[in-house]
Amino acid sequence: METPVVRVGIIGAGTVGAALIDLLSDTSRVDALIDAAGSRLELVAVAIRDTTRVRSHIPAHLLVDSAEKIASDPTIDVVVELMGGTSVAHELITTALQRGASVVTANKALLALSGTALSALARDNATDLFYEGAVGGGIPILRALRTSLAGERINRVMGIVNGTTNFILSKMTSEGSEYASVLSEAQSLGYAESDPTADVEGFDAAAKVTILSSLAFGTALDGSAIYREGITKIRLADVEFATRNGYVIKLLGISERVGASAISQRVHPAMVAKGHPLASVAGAFNAVFVEGASSGPLMWLGQGAGGAPTAAAVLGDVVAAARNKVTKRFDVPFSVDTTLGTFPMGELQSAFYITLNVIDRPGVLSAVTSVFGDHDVSIRSMEQSGFGDEAHLMFVTHIAFESDVSATLVDLAKLEVVEEIGSCIRLIGVDG
Amino acid sequence: METPVVRVGIIGAGTVGAALIDLLSDTSRVDALIDAAGSRLELVAVAIRDTTRVRSHIPAHLLVDSAEKIASDPTIDVVVELMGGTSVAHELITTALQRGASVVTANKALLALSGTALSALARDNATDLFYEGAVGGGIPILRALRTSLAGERINRVMGIVNGTTNFILSKMTSEGSEYASVLSEAQSLGYAESDPTADVEGFDAAAKVTILSSLAFGTALDGSAIYREGITKIRLADVEFATRNGYVIKLLGISERVGASAISQRVHPAMVAKGHPLASVAGAFNAVFVEGASSGPLMWLGQGAGGAPTAAAVLGDVVAAARNKVTKRFDVPFSVDTTLGTFPMGELQSAFYITLNVIDRPGVLSAVTSVFGDHDVSIRSMEQSGFGDEAHLMFVTHIAFESDVSATLVDLAKLEVVEEIGSCIRLIGVDG
C-alpha cells in the first residue's frame, strides 16, 4: 500500500515555527512520523513576513510571502498558524477551515476570543481545529481532556499556566528579593517582555484558563467570564510569610464547578499548601491539576513555553490532523453546555491571608478584629511585625465568603488607625 | 440524526468492574457520555463467577454466568475484560478480537506476556485493544504516548508505577520505621497483599514498564527483557541516609534509549534527588516522567490504583472504542521496532550508594577503598556510623559502570574485614 501524503503549510516562522520546521525536516524521524500520522507529512510552504531575510534553516523554495496563499491553497491539507495576533490570524484560520483544511494553532489569545465560533466552523466543515500548544507549552493536557477524560465528570481544573510569573514568584522565594528587582532580572534574561502586562497582570493565564474550562466543562470561550488578579502587588513580606507558614505563593488559573450548574473561572495569586502537588512546580515549569469525580486528582507537568516544547505539542496536533485527514475523519470539538452559568465571585468561599499596615497604639487590634467579626470573617491566626507607625499585621482567616472579605476590607480602610491595606491572598489546599 | 448505540459487556465485577458499572449507570452523565462517545453506551451484560451472590449494584437481568458468552456474542461491540489472570483472559480477549469486537482491559500481567500478539490481532481484525487502566491507575499516560507524543522522539520514560511500594517507602521515610513493620501495617490497611511478592519484588512494576516501553519505543512486550530488583532489602538506615543527603528512595521503573539502537528496561530502587519532580510523589500516588527530545521533561501524576480511578481510565477507553466503532475506525496499535536491541545492564552507568558492615580495625578503610579503586569505581563521599564490630560504612560513588560496581561488590565480599554487603542503590537526578 502506498503511503498517503499530507501536505502541510506553516504561517509564521518565529521560535515555534522554526522548531517545527526542524522537526518536520529531521530525516531520522521520517519513519516514526509516517507510523504516527498514517501518512507522510510533506512541508510544502512557509509564509513569513519578509522573504528577503536570510533563514538558513528554511529551504528557499518553501518560502512564500503571503499567508493568504497557504490558507486558501486547496492542495494544502493542514495549515499551521503560528503568526499570532487576533485579526489577520482569524481571517486566515476562517479561510482554511471553510475550505476543509485542518488548522493547528497555538494562538491562545485568538482562541479565548473566538474559539467557540472557530470550533463550530471546523465541525461544520468536517475538519479539525487543534491547539495543544496554546496551553502549557509542551504539556499534552488539551488532548487528554478531549479524549481520555471525555467520559469523566471533572470538578476542577487548576493550573500554573504562565511561566513568567512562576519564574518571578519562585525567584522571590528562593532569593528573598522584591517583585520589582526580580521582574527586571527576568526581563534582562528574556523571561519577561519589556511590557510584562500580559503575563504579570494575568491576561495570558486567563486566556489559558478559558481554553481549559471549555474543554473540561463546555463553557463558551469567553474571556469576560473570568475574574482576574495579577502578581504585581505581591511583596517579599508575603512570600516570607508563606515560607514560614508552609505555603508557596503561585499565580493560579482555576475553573471549577460550584453548585449544580455553575462554573467559576478565575486567575489570582494563591498561598498553596506545601503538600499540594502544585506547590513544588517551580521556575518556568507549568502544571495543570485536574480533579475528576472518579479519577481523583491528576496532574500534568512540563515546560510551559519555549520553541521546542511548544513545537512538540504543535507536531502532535499535525500528526493527529494528518491521521484524521487520511481516514476522512475529524474529532468532534467541545460543544457549549448552555445550561452552565457563571458562579458569582462574591459567593465563593476560601480562607484568606490579609495584611494591614496600622499605627500601633492601644485598642488597634480590637478595632481591627471587630471589623472582621462584623462581617462574619473568623480569624484563624495573626502575626505582627514592627512597632509604632510601622506595625504590620498578617491575618489568616477561616473559610469565608468573598463578599464578606471584600466588605471587611472596605470597612478596614475606613479605620483611622489603618494606614494601608496590604495583600489579600486566597489559600489553596487547606481546610477550615 | 438518531444516536447510535454501542453495546458493552463487562467480564468481572470486582472493585474496578463495580465502579465502571456505577459510571455507566449514572443517569446524570448520560448526555456527557453520548457527547464523548458519539453514541449511547448500553451496558448489556456483566459476567461474574457466581451469579447467585447478591450484587446490589448490578441489575439482575444483566448478570450472566459465562464470560465466554460475552466474548463471543456478536451483538456486543465492546468487551471489557476485568477478571485478571493470564490464561482464560487470553482466550476470551482472543475470541472477542477475532470477531471484531473492541477490547478494553486493565490486565497488565497478560499484556506484558502477550500484548504484542494481541495488539497485532486487534490490528488484523481492524478493531481496538485499549488498556489505559493497566498502568498508573487513573493516569491517562498510555493514550498520550499513543497520540500526543506519537511524533515525538522520546529518550526516557521513568515512573513510580507501583502504589504499594511507594506507600511503604514513604511510610519508612515519614515514620522512621523498618521495612518489615511498615509492610505489616500496609497489609493490615489493605494496601499490600498477604503475599506481597508481586509488588515488593517489582514484578508488577516490571509489567507496567514493559507496557510503557512498547508505546514509547516500539519494544516488544517481553517481560524477560527487563532487569528487576525489589525493595525488600531497603533498610531504615538507607532511608535516613537519603533524608540526610537530599534524596528520597523510590522504586523506579525505567525504559530509556542508550546509544544508537538499544533500549534499557529496568526496575530497581533509586535515590532520587529531592529537586527531581518524582521525589515529591508520595504515598499511594503514581507518576510517570517522560523525557522527549523536543518536549523536554513531562510528568503525569495521579492515583495509581483503586476501583474508581482505574474505572475512570477504563471508561476513557470504552468511550474511545465506542467512538471508533461508530465511525468504523480503529487506532493503529504500537508496532514493534525490530531494529532495537536490549542494552546490556553491565554497560549502564550510574552513581551508586553502597553500604558495608565491617570490623572496625586499622587498615580497613584502606583495604575497602582499594577494591573500589581496582575496579575504576571512584568514591565521591563516605560516612561511617558505629564502631568496633558494628561499623557501618556508607559510600556514594561517582558515575561508574554497572559491571565495575558488580565486580567491586564481589571482591568486597571476599575481604575478611567485610562482614556484610548492605545496600547498593543507584542515584537518579544527580550528575558526576
Task: Label this structure with key terms.
3 domains; 14 helices; six-stranded parallel β-sheet; Dihydrodipicolinate Reductase, domain 2; 432 residues; alpha/beta; 27% strand
Describe this structure as you would to a colleague:
The structure is a homodimer of 432-residue chains. Chain A is α/β, with parallel strands linked by helices and 432 residues long. Chain A has three domains: 5-137 and 307-326, NAD(P)-binding Rossmann-like Domain (Rossmann fold, 3-Layer(aba) Sandwich); 145-303, 2-Layer Sandwich (Dihydrodipicolinate Reductase, domain 2), CATH 3.30.360.10; 345-428, 2-Layer Sandwich (Alpha-Beta Plaits). Chain A has 14 helices and 19 strands. Chain A has helices at 15-25, 30-37, 67-72, 87-98, 108-124, 141-146, 163-175, 179-188, 197-200, 203-217, 236-244, 307-326, 364-374, 402-414; strands at 5-11, 40-47, 63-64, 78-81, 102-105, 129-130, 154-160, 226-228, 247-258, 262-273, 285-292, 296-303, 341-342, 349-350, 352-358, 379-385, 391-397, 400-401, 418-428. In chain A, the strands form three sheets. In chain A, strands 7, 8, 9, 10, 11, 12, 13, 15, 16, 17 and 19 form an eleven-stranded mixed β-sheet that branches. The longest helix of chain A is centred in the C-terminal third of the chain and has 20 residues, at 307-326. At the A-B interface, helix 2, strand 12 and helix 12 of A face helix 2, strand 12 and helix 12 of B.
